[in-house]
Amino acid sequence: MEKKFIKEVIEWVKTIGISLIVSICISTCISTIIKPTVVSGQSMYPTLKDKDYLIINKLAYSNKIPNRGDIIVFRTNLIDDQTMSKKHLVKRVIALPGEHIVIENDKVYINGNILEENYLQDIHTYGDIDMIVPENHVFTMGDNRERSDDSRDSCIGTISLDDVVGEVTLRAFPLNNIGIVK
User: Catalytic pick from 4, 43, 51, 154?
Assistant: First the structure.
């Protein structure tokens, strides 16, 4: 009876050990592909709301640059007052490397053409910008232009592609808004 008990305990220990190793491997693999993040603030309203729980595709730009209109997460040098760590921001890509962006009279122009932004609702795009986006950088803005710290601000500026964490692909919470983010 004692031998049977010891054999049973050994089998349980093996099963638990293998399960732990497999779960750690899966967790590690998944964390290299996706990253969860929570929206803090109203800069992307109405597309994203404060406290929305998002899933970021970290591999979206492994071999290509973002497209105009993509919503991305990127690292900044801004410091979060609560955690004292560098902030990640969520913004929409407006202009791509080498493009000429002009913002004047509440209008955004890319290479001389007015930018159609159907995702905006009665928003004023303040700021006087006239620049060529540097190579390996993108110009970003929040959808809530009046309440967004973004590439129009010198403390953020254009975003190096090396600082892009990934593309926002899915809203996982709140449950009544689960779905693909555009």
Answer: 43
Which one from 35, 87, 91, 154 is the annotated catalytic residue?
A: 91
Question: Shortest CA distance to 75 belongs to which of 89, 59, 57, 93?
Answer: 89
123, amino acid identity: I
Contact partners, residue 124, CB within 8 Å, separation at least 6: 106, 145, 146
Residue with tokens 């640059």: 65
Cα(140)–Cα(127) distance, integer angstroms: 13
Helices vs strands, H then E, count in the chain: 1, 12
Burial (CB < 10 A; 0-12, 13-18, 19+), residue 174, is: exposed
In a structure prediction context, what are the per-residue pLDDT tens digits for the chain, which is 182 residues long?
A: 677 777 787 888 888 877 777 767 666 655 567 677 888 888 888 888 888 998 888 888 888 899 999 999 998 887 777 777 788 899 999 999 999 999 998 889 999 999 988 878 777 888 889 999 999 999 999 999 888 888 999 889 999 999 999 999 888 888 777 777 78
Catalytic, 43? Answer: yes
Task: Report the SS3 class of residue 168.
Answer: strand
pTM: 0.81
